[in-house]
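Dear support,

Our group has been running a series of protein-ligand predictions, and this particular one with zinc ion is the one our PI (initials K.S.) wants archived with full inputs and outputs. We had some confusion internally about which version of the output was final, so please treat the block below as the authoritative record. The input we submitted was:
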Amino acid sequence: MRFNVAQILKATTGASRRYELDEDISGIDDDLQILSSLIGRVVFTHTLDEILVTGRLSTVLQAACPRCLESYPLDVEIDLEEEFVPSVDIWVGASLPISEQVDPGLVIDEHHVLDLSEVVRQYLVIAQTTCPSCRPDCAGLCSLCGQNLNLGQCSCSEVTLDPRLAVLKELL
Ligand SMILES: [Zn+2]
Ligand SMILES: [Zn+2]
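Confirmed final output from the archive:
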């Protein structure tokens, strides 16, 4: 997802360019299992001294349900709005100072190449680590035997699930 933005950097402030994406991102991160290509549209806009990238991208990745731990395909929508900063002055070729606060993934390289990969990777990692349960009524795992309760009740009784009731039962 590398784009040469020299033309946009030379254009007047406010100039923009639109790209349609259909990218194979299967190798974007060793810890992510990508199930479909990344598709969508991005718009690069030349702001005062940066390139504003906006757009909406979508893909599907393999997520693990936080309740039952089963893998399931998670649809991810990325609402992109990031400012990329040039590291070289487009007109004179001199290096530009980059603030330490700028994420290295948001720096346009010395060949005026803007790479969306790192930003997209970060969005996907967050989506994976904050994924919702596999379905709204996911029953999760039994806290005693670990059985996936979506597949049926286990034999642990209601009584032993509640330690206060278990104590009462022993007294009987
Ligand atoms: Zn689940
Ligand atoms: Zn159980």
